Amino acid sequence: MDMESASSVVLQALTQATSQDTALLKPAEEQLRQWETQPGFYSVLLNIFNNHMLDVNVRWLAVLYFKNGIDRYWRRVAPNALSEEEKTSLRAGLITNFNEPVNQIATQIAVLIAKVARLDCPRQWPELIPILLESVKGQDGLQQHRALLTFYHVTKTLASKRLAQDKRLFQDLASGIYSFACSLWSHHTDCFLQQVQAVDQTHALSSLERTLLSLKVLRKLTVHGFQEPQQNMEVMGFLNAVFERLKQFLECSRQVGPENPCREKLEKTIILYTKVLLDFLEVHPCAFIPLIQRSLEFAVGYVFTPAGEGLVFERFTVQCMNLIKTIVKNEAYKPCKNIEDSKPESLEAHKIKTAFFTHPTLTEIGRRLVSHYFLLTEEELAMWEEDPEGFAVEETGGDSWKYSLRPCTEVLFLDIFHNYSQTLTPVLLEMVLNLQGPSNVEDPVQLLMKDAVYNAVGLAAYELFDNIDFDQWFNNQLLGELQVSHHRYKLIRRRVIWLIGQWISVKFKSELRPLLYEVILNLMQDPDLVLLLINFASMMAYWLISL
Question: Which of 124, 123, 114 has the alpha carbon at shortest distance from 71?
Answer without folding.
Answer: 114
